[in-house]
Design the sequence.
C-alpha cells in the first residue's frame, strides 16, 4: 500500500476509465467524464467495503469447538515424538513434554492446557493444527521430538500459531542427559517471551529451578509419573508409582518434586483404597519434606492440601493450601478439581459442578475431569447430563474400564435397564480384571437380573479372593458368595460364608477404626447374618464418623448403608423415612447394592424384605426418577 498508493494517485490524475477504455484526462468528453466518474466511485466504494469486511473478519476473535473465546496467550504442548532407537524411551519423550508443560503452567499470564487433554493428539496426521487449536481452545501449539542415545539428548521444538499455521519460533537443543535437566525452564522462558508474556521474578525463579541434578533419579521419576496418569486410577498403578517415587528419592534425597508427588500418591491410596494410618503418616511426612526443600513448590502445597483435606477434613485449611498451589501454578487443573471436590463435600453441589465445568474448559480433553463431571451429575441424579459426560469420557479414554461400566450403570439408574451394562461388560477381553473390578461388576449385573447361577459361576471362575466392590477396603469373595446363597434362600450356607467375610471386615475395622466405610461394611455383613444389634451399631457408627453435615458426598452413602441395614433387620419404620429423604438427596448414588435410586430399590434383591410393605410402591411412585 505504501509504494502502490502514490503510483495509483498519479495514474488516476492522468487517466480516466471510459467506455472506450483508459484514455488521458484531457481527451475525455465532459459527458463521458461524468458517467465514468460515477462508475469509478461505485467501483472504489465496493472494493473498499470488501477490504473492510476482510479486515473485520480477520480480526474477529476465534472460538473453540465448544464456543468459548480463544485467548491469544494460550498454548498446548503436544506429545513429543520419540525418535530414539530404543522405543522403550517413549516415557522419556513424554517426560520432557510434561516437564515443559508443568513449567509453563507456573506462568500466570499464560493459559496452558493440561497434559491429559493433549495426549490424544499423539498422532500428528489425525488432526490439523487448526483442529487441535479449536478442540483445545488455544491459539498456539508447541510441537517437538526427542532423541536419546546413551547420555546424549537431542530436543527439537517449534512454536506454531494454530489459528493460521504461522511458525513463530523453532530451536534445536543437544545436551548431555545431566545438562538437559534444566531445559524445561529455558524453553518455558523462551516461549513466554515469544508470546509476549512477562514473567514475575517469582515465576522466573520457579520456572528455571531444576527438578534435580541426578539424571538417574529424574528418569525413574518420569517412569513413576507416567504410571500414575492412568485414567482408571487403579490401586496397582498407585502402588507401582509409589515404589518408583521412593526409588527416585533414594537416588536423590533432595528431589522436592518427587517428594511432593510421592505425598500425593500416598494420600490418594489412603483416600480411595486403604484408609489406614500408615499411609497418612507417610504421606504427610513426604509433603512436609517437599516443602522444607522447596517452600515455593506448587505441587508440595497441593500435596499438603490433600493430606489436610482427606485426613483431617479441615476444608478451610485445605483450601488455603490449594489457593497457594494455584498462585504458584495457575494452570494446574488438579488443584482446581480438588477445590471443586471440597465444594461438593460441603453440599455446594451447583458450585462444585460449575467448578468442574470451568476446569473442563481449561482442560477440555482430560478424562479425569470428565469423570468428576460424570460422578457429580450422577450424584445429583441428572441422568441425561451424566449420560452425556460418560460418552465424552469414553471418547477421551476408549480403554478406560470406568468409562465403559459407568455408562451402563447410568443407563440402569435412569431407565432401569441393565442390557447396556451387560453388553459393555461382555466387550471386555477375558483376563482383564484389575483389582477384580470386572468380576465384581459381572457378579453385580447377574444379581440385579436375579440370575444367581450366573453370579455364582462368575465368582467360581475367578482366581481372585478379593475384589473392588464395597468402599473402604477390598471385598472378600466369601461376602459376594454369601450374598448369592442368601438371595437364593440358602441361609445355612450363606451364614458360613458370611462368618468368613465378617472376620475379614472386623480385621479391617481394627486396622482403621476411624474409617466410616469399614464400619459400614461390617454393619452390612452383620445385617445379612441377622445380627441386628451389631449391624445397627456399626452402621450408626459409620454415620457418626461421616455425617452429611461434614461430608455431603460420603455422608449420604453412609446413610444409604444405614437404610439398608434397617430394611434387612426389620426396622422398617426407621428405614422408610430415611429412604424417602435419600431419594431426594444428592450423593446417595453408587455402583453397589446400598445405592438408593428408584431403580436400585425396584430391582435389587437386597430390598426384598420391605418390598411387600404398602409404603414401598407409594415410595417408588412418588419419588423423582
Sequence:
Amino acid at each position: 500500500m505504501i509504494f502502490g498508493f502514490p503510483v495509483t494517485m498519479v495514474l488516476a490524475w492522468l487517466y480516466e476509465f471510459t467506455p472506450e477504455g483508459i484514455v488521458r484526462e484531457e481527451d475525455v468528453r465532459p459527458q463521458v467524464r461524468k458517467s465514468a466518474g460515477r462508475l469509478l466511485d461505485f467501483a472504489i466504494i465496493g472494493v473498499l467495503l470488501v477490504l473492510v469486511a476482510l479486515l473485520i473478519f480477520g480480526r474477529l476473535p476465534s472460538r473453540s469447538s465448544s464456543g468459548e473465546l480463544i485467548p491469544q496467550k494460550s498454548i498446548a504442548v503436544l506429545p513429543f515424538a520419540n525418535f530414539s532407537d530404543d522405543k522403550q524411551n517413549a516415557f522419556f519423550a513424554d517426560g520432557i513434554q510434561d516437564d515443559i508443560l508443568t513449567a509453563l503452567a507456573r506462568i500466570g499470564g499464560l493459559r496452558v492446557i493440561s497434559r491429559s487433554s493433549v495426549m490424544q493428539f499423539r498422532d500428528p496426521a489425525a488432526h490439523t493444527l487448526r483442529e487441535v487449536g479449536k478442540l483445545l481452545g488455544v491459539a498456539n501449539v508447541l510441537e517437538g521430538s526427542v532423541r536419546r542415545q546413551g547420555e546424549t539428548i537431542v530436543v527439537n521444538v517449534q512454536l506454531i500459531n494454530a489459528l493460521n499455521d504461522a511458525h513463530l519460533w523453532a530451536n534445536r537443543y543437544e545436551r548431555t542427559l545431566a545438562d538437559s535437566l534444566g531445559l524445561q525452564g529455558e524453553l518455558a522462558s523462551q516461549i513466554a517471551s515469544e508470546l509476549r508474556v512477562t514473567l514475575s521474578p517469582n515465576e522466573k525463579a520457579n520456572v528455571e529451578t531444576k527438578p534435580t541434578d541426578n539424571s538417574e533419579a529424574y528418569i525413574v521419576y518420569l517412569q513413576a509419573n507416567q504410571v500414575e496418569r492412568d485414567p482408571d486410577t487403579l490401586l496397582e498403578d498407585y502402588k507401582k508409582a509409589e515404589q518408583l517415587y521412593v526409588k527416585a528419592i533414594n537416588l536423590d534425597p533432595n528431589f522436592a518434586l518427587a517428594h511432593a508427588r510421592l505425598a500425593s500418591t500416598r494420600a490418594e491410596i489412603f483416600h480411595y483404597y486403604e484408609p489406614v494410618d500408615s499411609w497418612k503418616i507417610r504421606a504427610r511426612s513426604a509433603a512436609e519434606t517437599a516443602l522444607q526443600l522447596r517452600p515455593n513448590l506448587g505441587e508440595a502445597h497441593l500435596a499438603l492440601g490433600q493430606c489436610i483435606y482427606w485426613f483431617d477434613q479441615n476444608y478451610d485449611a485445605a483450601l488455603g493450601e490449594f489457593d497457594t498451589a494455584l498462585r504458584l501454578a495457575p494452570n494446574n487443573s488438579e488443584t482446581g478439581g480438588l477445590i471443586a471436590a471440597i465444594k461438593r463435600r460441603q453440599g455446594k453441589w451447583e458450585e462444585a459442578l460449575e467448578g468442574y465445568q470451568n476446569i473442563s474448559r481449561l482442560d477440555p480433553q482430560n478424562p479425569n475431569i470428565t469423570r468428576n463431571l460424570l460422578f457429580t451429575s450422577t450424584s445429583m441424579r441428572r441422568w441425561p447430563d451424566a449420560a452425556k459426560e460418560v460418552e465424552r469420557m469414553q471418547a477421551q479414554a476408549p480403554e478406560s474400564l470406568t468409562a465403559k461400566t459407568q455408562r451402563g450403570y447410568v443407563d440402569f439408574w435412569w431407565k432401569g435397564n441393565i442390557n447396556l451394562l451387560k453388553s459393555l461388560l461382555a466387550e471386555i477381553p477375558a483376563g482383564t480384571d484389575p483389582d477384580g473390578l470386572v468380576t465384581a461388576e459381572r457378579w453385580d449385573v447377574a444379581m440385579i437380573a436375579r440370575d444367581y447361577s450366573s453370579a455364582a459361576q462368575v465368582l467360581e471362575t475367578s482366581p481372585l479372593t478379593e475384589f473392588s466392590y464395597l468402599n473402604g477396603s477390598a471385598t472378600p469373595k466369601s461376602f459376594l458368595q454369601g450374598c448369592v446363597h442368601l438371595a437364593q434362600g440358602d441361609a445355612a450356607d450363606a451364614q458360613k460364608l458370611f462368618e468368613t467375610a465378617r472376620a475379614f471386615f472386623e480385621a479391617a475395622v481394627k486396622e482403621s477404626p476411624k474409617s466410616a466405610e469399614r464400619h459400614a461394611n461390617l454393619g452390612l455383613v452383620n445385617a445379612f447374618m441377622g445380627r441386628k444389634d451389631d449391624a445397627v451399631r456399626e452402621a450408626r457408627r459409620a454415620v457418626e464418623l461421616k455425617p452429611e453435615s461434614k461430608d455431603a458426598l460420603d455422608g449420604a452413602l453412609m446413610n444409604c448403608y444405614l437404610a439398608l441395614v434397617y430394611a434387612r433387620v426389620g426396622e422398617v419404620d426407621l428405614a422408610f423415612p430415611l429412604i424417602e429423604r435419600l431419594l431426594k438427596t444428592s450423593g446417595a448414588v453408587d455402583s453397589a447394592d446400598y445405592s438408593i435410586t428408584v431403580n436400585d430399590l425396584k430391582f435389587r434383591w437386597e430390598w426384598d424384605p420391605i418390598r411387600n410393605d404398602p409404603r414401598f410402591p407409594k415410595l417408588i411412585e412418588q419419588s423423582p426418577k
Q: What stands out?
A: The mean pLDDT is 88.
